[in-house]
Amino acid sequence: MEHIVSIQALVTSLSMVAGQLTIPFFCKFMGKKSSSIMMNVVALIGNVIFFFCGANLVWLCIGTALVWFPLGYLMGMRFSLLADVVEYCELKSGIRAAGILSSLDSFLAKLAFGLNVTIMLAIMEIGGYNAKQDIQTESAQLFIKIGFVGVPMLCIVLTIVLFFFFKFDKELPKMKKEREAQLAAESK
Fold it and tell me: Please, are residues 160 and 37 in contact by the beta-carbon 8 Å criterion?
């Protein structure tokens, strides 16, 4: 069992780094929005593999790579998308709110991590998880899967839906050109 954890940790780390290294390629090739949606779909496929792979090490590693490659990508992309939000807000309102938006991003990330632990513990308790047992009941095992795989899948689907409302990729270039034209007219 210990060798499986170390193999999975290695695949996780390598996949995350590889995902982050591909940010420029996918952004240039597909754009931020489309590439982010694609990466969420890949992570969703990886989670489906997790749910059904059981103790098969090969499928576990494939699922791990298909989850953590996109997560590495999306973790890096998060900062670029945040910069777009800051720029959009400034062009829309004239107020540069980088500090408050960055603080809000940090607060929400910490809140999500805290809720993650709380939700996971509640799900495991509902399933009848008992830390003193070496082998968990079928119900506890199912609820562990729901917590570690089902809830992330739900979050990924929600993220994909929210990305369809993300319009900055089309509006921001137009707004920049309008602002440049306005500044050029003012300088004459």
Answer: yes
* Backbone dihedral region for residue 128 (phi beyond 0: left; psi -120 to 50: alpha; all else: beta): left
| Overall average pLDDT of the 60-79 stretch | 94
The model's confidence at residue 158, banded by pLDDT at 50, 70 and 90, is: very high
The CA distance from 20 to 144, in Å, is 29
Burial of 92 (0-12, 13-18, 19+ CB in 10 A): exposed
- pLDDT class for 43, splitting at 50, 70, 90? very high
Half-sphere exposure of 148 (CA within 13 A, CB side): 15
Using alpha carbons only, give the angle 20, 23, 26 rounded to the nearest 5 degrees: 140
Contact yes or no for 120/145 (Cβ under 8 A): no
Contact 98, 86 (CB under 8 A): yes
What's the predicted TM-score (pTM) here?
A: 0.84
